[in-house]
Write a structure and sequence with these properties.
Blueprint lengths: L2 H21 L17 E4 L2 H5 L5 E3 L7 E2 L9 E4 L6 E5 L4 E4 L3 E4 L5 E6 L6
Antiparallel strand pairs: 1-2, 1-4, 3-8, 4-7, 5-6, 5-8
């Protein structure tokens, strides 16, 4: 077998192996910590919900204005932002706000969260 043919066969074999490697590469894993499926901001009404990893409500849409929270999220004890690139601005009954950065948790204690605005940016 001449040298040019041999190089062509070796090149074809290498290209085939590379293609197989690309097609079987693992996909990026999404964040599902605390029972919160990516890309959501999850609310947990009680410590029991948090400890059981069972969100009582989730939000995922980026909006231009705040979304009022429903009965399953308003006054939640815990909030977890599973998004990788987007912050979530939380609004509280006392008039304050909190920017919940990507992949961050907040324990609200006695603060009553009333609305959320998911941002198209990690900062609010």
């Amino acid at each position: 077998m001449n040298v040019i043919k041999r190089i062509g066969i070796i090149g074809a074999a290498a290209a085939s192996l590379a293609a197989v490697g690309l097609s079987t590469a693992p996909t990026a894993s999404a964040n599902t910590a605390h029972g919160c499926t990516y890309p959501r901001v999850c609310f947990y009404l009680t410590d029991a919900d948090w400890n059981a990893k069972k969100p009582t409500a989730t939000y995922k849409d980026i909006t231009s204005s705040p979304q009022n929270l429903g009965a399953r999220s308003r006054n939640s004890e815990w909030v977890f932002n599973s998004r990788n690139d987007d912050g979530a601005l939380l609004y509280y009954a006392h008039g304050g706000t909190l920017c919940l950065a990507p992949n961050t948790i907040v324990d609200n204690n006695d603060w009553v969260v009333t609305a959320i605005k998911i941002m198209n940016s990690p900062s609010c």
